[in-house]
């Protein structure tokens, strides 16, 4: 499909996708499929063995950590072959956008960090070995020799391994800010320089091992941080890759597939039944019904005819439509909504994480303490070397080994656990914000419900129902499909001259009478509040089949669990009061509002926030995006529209909603662990700082204290269940 | 003390060997899928002969 797309007249517009395709070819014929459901050893061998026989496939390798499979293939191997094979053996698979250069970049930084970590670990252990000899009483020339060897190992290692900290510290300093990396870099550099000077003057104390273990532990924290973020990022990209931004452009009576961003106003675009409208426009040809659920939350499809305006993101249900483009790409309503979200996002980014808050108190505090120690000792003794030594000892001892590990160790454990349960945490501070939630606001269509209709009552299996089934066979409309699913024992009646009347319904001949199944107006009935199709046999009065939206699995459990946790639960929907009220009663939600506009949703969330409520918004549609961005923290199901997923902090990968209540508990526990870790670090400092200030600190004590506090903090993080 | 002249270089060289092995493992992407590698030892797919 992509390969056969002709190059358009606008080369600049095509440059991006073209570059993407070239890139994929440059890597060799590699194809990456996302496998969201794999989880164990049996899955790995099932997938690899299942794919093995495919013609044109050279190798398949599953990556369980990232939940994907990399295929090495002969040129021109169609991805759909592999996807259908995987579907046959029961694994859901999606082709990933091959141009994920950022993906390889993330892998490269990960490997880079790991390399520095390995070097630091090697150097730390060797220097520690030599230091132990010094601590256990090596004297004079032997001590000096050991110190010199240590220096020869430590200094190049620091220059290589601690680079990430130096770079970050420099970046912060050059915009006149202080971050955690400034005291870290200062401690490492000063410890190295001071120790070298001491060794040159055959001093007793060298802090090479301290400088190296500092580097090692902090790099470990950095690497954990990077890993959990890389997993989240790659999964988020997988979701983005599901929407292929292509459209069918009609020119001189011929349709060709082009990228959406090459369309210009005035172009005619064909939208197939079942397809999503890619642009804003006006219908020029064809009749159909349009599903607006993702944009407005309405569960009833709308009749569509020439002259009517459609917006990007709506789904065409029954007949082919030709739409004249009025706005595409950056001007379309979809994109404008995404911009709104971006604005709201920056507002949310003002949330300062626990780690930032700690760093803000900590960084200046440490510098002041070291300066205070230096000034105090120099006025007391007048000995510059002693004063500097003590100041450096203070810097090293207070250095945030534990602090640097406190947050990443916990978030890695927590996000990993949530990922296993099917929740993808996209934002670094999302867990902390999730822990503070006291109010939960739900959207209806597509969030609490599946957005799939289901017959409300068990049908009477009479001839009328059989006729309706016979007619339903002639249509791909969701309501027709739902009707057929309820068929059970009834055999559909034989309908002759079966024909779909786009936008209205299906019509045919049965035992010499005209029979129709479709919209209320079409068969001469008055439409009620509920989603319904109407059946008319000959001249008999029409009869309705009413539908409800089926509940998303886990929705009832989630709402019950939330109320048990003492959260207040709200339901906001753009749908009509009838279905919203029915759902609210079914789930036991007393606070509900129907038929509200997207802006009102956001205003409602903001009003709740103004009353000091921390709001969790769960929604999937374009009408929810503003509210999702305005909320304290937000969750979207994987089936949600692109913009909604971008606006949310957490994406629910499975269909089941139930894991969400567990996520709230995990988030609260994780935040508690982070606070405990800070407490451990503070307690350790409370003991160590006076000792260092008094000038009693030795390299041995520094090494012991540093390792002990780091191990305590990591162990505490692992307790998270 | 003479012994140290040999022992320290030898210990450093051995440690360096380990480091080199780590670099090799890193470069050949053996740390890219820690979860999968842990699970793979449980399968008996290529027990009797190596994967072609």
Automatic annotation (TrEMBL), chain A:
<keyword id="KW-0547">Nucleotide-binding</keyword>
<dbReference type="GO" id="GO:0005507">
    <property type="term" value="F:copper ion binding"/>
</dbReference>
<dbReference type="InterPro" id="IPR027256">
    <property type="entry name" value="P-typ_ATPase_IB"/>
</dbReference>
<dbReference type="InterPro" id="IPR017969">
    <property type="entry name" value="Heavy-metal-associated_CS"/>
</dbReference>
<feature type="domain" description="HMA">
    <location>
        <begin position="29"/>
        <end position="94"/>
    </location>
</feature>
<feature type="transmembrane region" description="Helical">
    <location>
        <begin position="361"/>
        <end position="380"/>
    </location>
</feature>
<keyword id="KW-0406">Ion transport</keyword>
<feature type="transmembrane region" description="Helical">
    <location>
        <begin position="113"/>
        <end position="134"/>
    </location>
</feature>
<dbReference type="Pfam" id="PF00403">
    <property type="entry name" value="HMA"/>
</dbReference>
<keyword id="KW-0597">Phosphoprotein</keyword>
<keyword id="KW-0479">Metal-binding</keyword>
<keyword id="KW-0812">Transmembrane</keyword>
<feature type="transmembrane region" description="Helical">
    <location>
        <begin position="146"/>
        <end position="166"/>
    </location>
</feature>
<keyword id="KW-0813">Transport</keyword>
<keyword id="KW-0067">ATP-binding</keyword>
<dbReference type="Pfam" id="PF00702">
    <property type="entry name" value="Hydrolase"/>
</dbReference>
<dbReference type="InterPro" id="IPR001757">
    <property type="entry name" value="P_typ_ATPase"/>
</dbReference>
<dbReference type="InterPro" id="IPR023214">
    <property type="entry name" value="HAD_sf"/>
</dbReference>
<keyword id="KW-1133">Transmembrane helix</keyword>
<dbReference type="GO" id="GO:0016887">
    <property type="term" value="F:ATP hydrolysis activity"/>
</dbReference>
<keyword id="KW-0472">Membrane</keyword>
<keyword id="KW-1278">Translocase</keyword>
From TrEMBL, chain B:
<dbReference type="Pfam" id="PF03597">
    <property type="entry name" value="FixS"/>
</dbReference>
<feature type="compositionally biased region" description="Basic and acidic residues">
    <location>
        <begin position="42"/>
        <end position="52"/>
    </location>
</feature>
<dbReference type="InterPro" id="IPR004714">
    <property type="entry name" value="Cyt_oxidase_maturation_cbb3"/>
</dbReference>
<protein>
    <submittedName>
        <fullName>Cytochrome C oxidase subunit II</fullName>
    </submittedName>
</protein>
<feature type="region of interest" description="Disordered">
    <location>
        <begin position="32"/>
        <end position="52"/>
    </location>
</feature>
